[in-house]
């Protein structure tokens, strides 16, 4: 399990776990920090994908099924052990959905809450019309990266850094682009609450389409900022306060 997740602070006494999924090209450290901030009732597992951090020498995944299979193999026992929630931003939102869809179909378990951020549902018309950015030239790709913000300009202008960073980012985008044509569910597969977050200045996302996957409560929250709004300290506090409140409520309902 330690190969697949980063956990800065083990909390055996925690009542629930928050499992976090990285954005395209991202690592696990940003979310792992949350384990030092959230209270003792919530343990944070940050997913670490191949091709980055301590797994830098491993080959990137080629499709979403590989992502789902690895996470289920590594984390299924812990997901059965106590209540868990998922958080995913952008690419991470789509991997969260793919995972929970498989968990429900194969093992009949689901999270107590799903927090999705910065992404249209994979079956929405808006997503189906997205250009395949993984096929852009490096020059055009960097221009797109600059336009969405969130990456320091000094990194984008550093060829050596980009040589290390771009392969992981493009690999993740290829995974999600090949997954984006799954069909809208005829019946909601889940019953847990879902909250969607987004930056007010980001490109529009079809957040309402996520409502189709659950019969539970559905909430949309818009925060100041663009695509990487969650990197801003004020927004991060809003996110973590909200997540904490929802999980504490879920804990009461669960038990």
UniProtKB/TrEMBL annotation:
The name under which this protein is listed is S-acyl fatty acid synthase thioesterase, medium chain
Which species is the source of this protein?
A: Periophthalmus magnuspinnatus
Q: Which residues form the Thioesterase domain?
A: 17-245
Identify its protein family: Belongs to the thioesterase family.
Q: What Pfam families would the database entry show?
A: Thioesterase (PF00975)
UniProt-listed InterPro entries: AB_hydrolase_fold, TEII, Thioesterase
- What would you give as a GO molecular function for this chain, any one? fatty acyl-[ACP] hydrolase activity
What EC numbers are recorded for this enzyme?
Answer: 3.1.2.14
Superkingdom field: Eukaryota
> Where do transmembrane segments lie in this chain?
none
Q: Which SUPFAM superfamilies match?
A: alpha/beta-Hydrolases (SSF53474)
- Name the PANTHER family for this protein: S-ACYL FATTY ACID SYNTHASE THIOESTERASE, MEDIUM CHAIN, THIOESTERASE
Q: Which UniProt keywords apply?
A: Fatty acid biosynthesis, Fatty acid metabolism, Hydrolase, Lipid biosynthesis, Lipid metabolism
**Which reactions is this enzyme annotated as catalysing?**
(9Z)-octadecenoyl-[ACP] + H2O = (9Z)-octadecenoate + holo-[ACP] + H(+)
In terms of Gene3D superfamilies, this protein maps to: alpha/beta hydrolase
> One GO BP annotation here?
medium-chain fatty acid biosynthetic process
